Inverse folding.
């Protein structure tokens, strides 16, 4: 049996997780459980059969990583994700997930700790454009490429992608050499998915934890820390925090 990444470790590294599994394998590893969420790294090679289902009482969302995956959410037309995109299935919306390209199509799913797949989805009677009636945040498909095109690469910026009763998720783009002020969050665990560049977390009493593309960083509540973008290129990360007040 393949060893799994320990849950809630400081840095879950993309290369190490992928290296434990063969090409073309189907697998899932639970990386985080923080009370609000269960976060699962999922591999679905092309041809993996879908399992359309519904969660009636909570939103579920995913960060798309390796490969390309097709998502059909509720009655919305299918969309094809790329690295760094966020896809959301609002509560009550069936979701049909089909890996399409790459030896392994990897997604990082953020779901409720008590979730199950017991309520199977019903095929929609018609499909409507995915951007019809949708506003940011909580889009069905938030495209990283579109955010970069809109905001550019020559300055620091933040965009909210998810804002619901469990999570407040933002994209942060930072230029090399940027360092945040030291802060802490006494009432919530916080975690990040690095999408681009090299990022360092300077954590009180621990030193520095470094992460790169695809790595997931977890910080339990009460820890003081600052974040720096190091190296020669800008960084992009997704922050998953508690609900905004």
């Amino acid at each position: 049996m393949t060893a799994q990444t320990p849950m809630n470790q400081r840095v879950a590294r993309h290369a190490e997780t992928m290296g434990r599994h063969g090409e073309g394998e189907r697998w899932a590893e639970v990386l985080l459980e923080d009370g609000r969420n269960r976060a699962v790294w999922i591999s679905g090679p092309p041809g993996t059969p879908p399992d359309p289902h519904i969660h009636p009482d909570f939103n579920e969302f995913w960060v798309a990583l390796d490969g390309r995956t097709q998502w059909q959410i509720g009655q919305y037309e299918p969309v094809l994700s790329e690295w760094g995109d966020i896809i959301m299935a609002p509560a009550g919306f069936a979701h049909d997930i089909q890996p399409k390209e790459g030896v392994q199509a990897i997604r990082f799913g953020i779901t409720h700790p008590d979730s199950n797949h017991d309520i199977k989805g019903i095929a929609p009677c018609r499909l409507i454009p995915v951007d019809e009636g949708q506003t940011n945040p909580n889009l069905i498909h938030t495209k990283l490429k579109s955010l970069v095109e809109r905001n550019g690469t020559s300055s620091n910026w933040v965009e909210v992608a998810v804002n619901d009763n469990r999570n407040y998720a933002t994209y942060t783009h930072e230029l090399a050499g940027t360092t945040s002020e030291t802060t802490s969050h006494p009432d919530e665990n916080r975690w990040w998915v690095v999408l681009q560049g090299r990022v360092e977390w300077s954590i009180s009493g621990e030193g520095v934890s470094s992460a790169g593309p695809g790595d997931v960083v977890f910080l339990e509540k009460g820890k003081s820390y600052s974040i720096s973008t190091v190296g020669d290129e800008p960084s992009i990360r997704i922050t998953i925090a508690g609900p905004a007040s």
In short: The CA atoms of residues 53 and 120 lie 4 Å apart. Helices lie at 14-19, 144-151. The two ends are 43 Å apart (CA to CA).
